[in-house]
Write a structure and sequence with these properties.
Largest sheet: 5 strands, antiparallel
CATH topology of the largest domain: minor pseudopilin epsh fold
Number of helices: 3
Number of strands: 9
Strand content: 25-35%
CATH class of the largest domain: Alpha Beta
Number of domains: 2
Distance between the termini: 65 Å
CATH superfamily of the largest domain: minor pseudopilin epsh domain
Helix content: 25-40%
Length: 148
C-alpha cells in the first residue's frame, strides 16, 4: 500500500457516504409530523368542546352560546338577564392552530345558542389550512359530525 492510499478516502467512498446521509435525511423529513398539528385534531377538539357546552346547557339549565370566527371561537352563558363570556376551561376562548382558519356563515362569523334541551340551530364550520379541509356540522338535534 502506498502512503497516499493509507491516508484518506477515495472520491467514490465519500460519494457513497454522502448518498447514504442524503437518503437518511430524506426519510426523516418525510416522516416528521406537521409542527402545527393535525387539522382534524383541531376539529375533534372543537367538537368535544361544543359537546361540553351542550351538556352544560342541559345540566346547568342555562342557555349557552357558541361564537365562531375565522381565527377562533368562544363560549358565553346566559345569566341574570345577560350574556356572560366564559373565560375558564373548558370554555375559554380558543384560537385555531397556526395557519388554520374557519369558513363559517356568510359574514365570516356565526353564533348559535344551545337551549336547556341541548338543541340549536344547524351550523357548518369548515377548517382550512393549505390544501387540507375538515368540515364540522352541528345539527339542530345536537348531533356533531366531524367529516373530511
Amino acid at each position: 500500500m502506498t502512503r497516499s492510499a493509507a491516508n484518506g478516502f477515495t472520491l467514490v467512498e465519500l460519494m457513497v457516504v454522502m448518498a447514504i446521509i442524503g437518503l437518511a435525511t430524506g426519510v426523516v423529513v418525510l416522516t416528521m409530523p406537521d409542527a402545527r398539528g393535525d387539522l382534524r385534531a383541531d376539529a375533534e377538539r372543537f367538537a368535544a368542546r361544543v359537546r361540553s357546552a351542550q351538556d352544560a346547557a342541559v345540566i346547568d339549565a342555562h342557555d349557552m352560546a357558541l361564537s365562531v370566527r375565522a381565527d377562533g371561537y368562544g363560549f358565553s352563558r346566559y345569566q341574570r338577564g345577560r350574556w356572560v363570556p366564559l373565560r375558564d376551561k373548558p370554555f375559554a376562548p380558543q384560537l385555531w392552530s397556526t395557519g388554520a382558519q374557519a369558513i363559517v356563515g356568510t359574514a365570516g362569523s356565526a353564533r348559535v345558542v344551545f337551549d336547556t334541551t341541548g338543541g340549536t340551530a344547524p351550523l357548518d364550520v369548515t377548517l382550512v389550512r393549505d390544501a387540507q379541509r375538515v368540515r364540522i356540522r352541528l345539527e339542530g338535534d345536537g348531533t356533531i359530525d366531524v367529516g373530511a
